[in-house]
Specification:
The complex is a heterodimer. By secondary structure, chain A is an all-alpha fold. Chain A is built from eleven helices and no strands. Chain A folds into three domains: 42 residues; 93 residues, Alpha Horseshoe (Serine Threonine Protein Phosphatase 5, Tetratricopeptide repeat), CATH 1.25.40; 42 residues, no CATH class. In chain B, helix 3 packs antiparallel against helix 5 and helix 7 packs across helix 8. Classes of the chains: A mainly alpha, B mainly alpha.
């Protein structure tokens, strides 16, 4: 005799009685409840939460506890959740209403949960720092700068973008130079491209600090940092141009 | 040996017929569907986000499936008086336990590797393999704990609640130790010291589930093999501990 607990399973639909066995009132209840559910749910469409609803970031201990020992998935999901705030199609000024201090707090916690992840810094430099609100832009750029210093080798692209925003959007060359100088000083890895390390020289040129720019570019060439011939030719031309400009200025 | 082999076979047969494999396929489909959805939402790091979320879902689902299968299987067996029938055979209780544990462990191992394979779509296969091996070991712990709980508590709801609590505690005990060691208001009295000691004592009895099967192993590469080996050896010791406790309970139980 085969025990009942190892009998083969039957198909899900097998052994069911015909529809006629269901009392009419049960069917009516089912259809009515289905209609009521549809009526209630179809009245409101899902919306992204408004910026004003952004709560203060939870503490690191609470986040670690909530992550159940595996912080990366929680960090990724919270990042997408944060991104959903005020991110609505057709919103002409997205993210304007967000409290940027809270936002920076969230981004910082997310980076602490997943230090290798780049998403929070991308949001900070390419999304939240692009709004037409200077104090908020500056706050976000400073956040990127502070986080860059914790891991320059990996996070330099976001500070490079911050330098571009400071130069072209805020027209604050001193700030752009500070960021560019930080990249040159701290991001010394092999994979950091030369253009990122040369940013400061070109910003100096824009600031009319021709001598400093000339010395910097000359330094790159002398130290043999430029391997590509085309790039070397470009920089030498640039150097000659700077020398000419400096001579005219004198 | 024949008895153990027959018990393993019947357990595997039961797994096949209780549609555990179908549930695993459904869970896998849902996890990959969620990953595909997140790809539409993420602006960068799509692969990393897909991997992290799919891996977290699969890890939790695997633990749930194994615990649910072990507990419902043994409770049904007990309700049908099959346990009594099996234990009435002229074999030691340890043989019954070994057969059951080996059968459930094989289901867990298969599930661990089945869930790791699709992650190779997102990350190098070697990383997925190490993660899968780690998940298989984690499921061995879940199997042992579920067996222990169901043999001790005998009912589905208490056994499942105890297993879930145990699993969650195993994954968060280090964070709890940090909280207990450094409370918000500082250590102000004997209650804080007592809480810290109690949490430390519980931590000693818990497996380090928060140190294995980590998503970072998939995204950044696993730690050196020696470290993985040490963690898995620690897990194996824990399985032996819980297995011995369950066996102790089974030997004392009167049917």
């Amino acid at each position: 005799m085969r025990a009942s607990w190892i009998l083969p399973g039957r198909p899900f639909s097998a052994g069911q009685r015909p529809f006629a066995c269901v009392p009419t009132w049960v069917l009516v209840c089912l259809l009515a409840a289905l209609f009521a559910q549809w009526a209630v749910k179809s009245r409101h469409s899902p919306e992204s939460p408004a910026g004003a609803e952004l709560a203060p970031p939870p503490g690191m201990t609470a986040l670690r506890l909530a992550s159940l020992g595996d912080p990366i998935p929680l960090a990724k999901l919270l990042t997408l959740h944060l991104q959903s705030f005020d991110h609505r199609a057709g919103n002409p000024l997205p993210y304007q209403s967000l409290d940027y201090r809270r936002l920076a707090g969230w981004l910082e916690q997310l980076l602490r949960l997943d230090p290798v992840g780049q998403y929070p810094l991308m949001l900070a430099s390419r999304v939240y720092a692009e709004i037409p609100n200077e104090p908020k832009q500056r706050l976000m750029l400073e956040f990127v700068y502070a986080e860059f210093l914790k891991d320059p080798g990996r996070r330099w692209p976001w500070l490079a973008h911050a330098a571009v925003i400071a130069k072209h959007r805020l027209k604050d060359l001193a700030l752009a130079r500070r960021y560019a100088a930080a990249i040159q000083q701290h991001a010394t890895g092999e994979d950091v491209p030369l253009w990122a390390r040369q940013m400061e020289a070109f910003i100096l040129e824009d600031m009319n600090e021709l001598e400093a720019a000339r010395l910097m570019i000359g330094g790159f060439i002398e130290k043999g940092m430029i391997k590509d011939e085309g790039e070397l030719r470009f920089l030498e031309q640039r150097l000659q141009e700077l020398e000419r400009k400096a001579a005219v200025a004198k | 040996m024949d008895y153990i082999a027959a018990t393993i076979k019947s357990t595997l047969l039961e797994a096949a017929r209780s549609r555990v494999a179908w549930m695993a396929v459904v869970v896998l489909g849902l996890a990959l569907g969620l990953a595909a959805f997140l790809q539409q939402v993420a602006l960068i790091e799509q692969k990393e986000i897909q991997t992290a979320v799919a891996a977290a879902v699969l890890r939790a689902a695997a633990a749930f499936l194994v615990a649910a299968f072990v507990i419902t299987s043994l409770v049904r067996e007990a309700n049908d008086k099959v346990t009594e029938l099996l234990l009435s055979q002229p074999v030691p209780r340890s043989a019954y336990f070994a057969g059951k544990f080996a059968g459930y462990a094989l289901v867990g191992l298969a599930l661990g590797f089945f869930f790791a394979v699709p992650l190779a779509l997102f990350v190098p296969a070697s990383r997925a393999l190490v993660w899968g091996a780690s998940l298989a070991f984690e499921l061995l712990v879940v199997t042992a704990v579920s067996l222990f709980c169901v043999l001790s508590l005998t009912q589905t709801v208490p056994a499942f609640a105890a297993t879930a609590g145990f699993y969650l505690l195993g994954r968060s005990i280090d964070a709890m130790r940090t909280i207990a060691a450094d409370p918000i208001g500082g250590i102000t009295g004997w209650t804080d010291i007592a809480v810290r000691w109690i949490v430390d004592a519980i931590a000693v009895l818990m497996p380090s589930l928060d140190r294995i099967t980590l998503t970072a192993w998939l995204l950044e590469g696993p730690p050196p093999l020696a470290e993985v080996g040490a963690l898995l050896a620690q897990t194996a010791i824990y399985v032996a501990l819980i297995g011995a406790a369950a066996l102790f309970d089974l030997h004392r139980k009167s049917f």
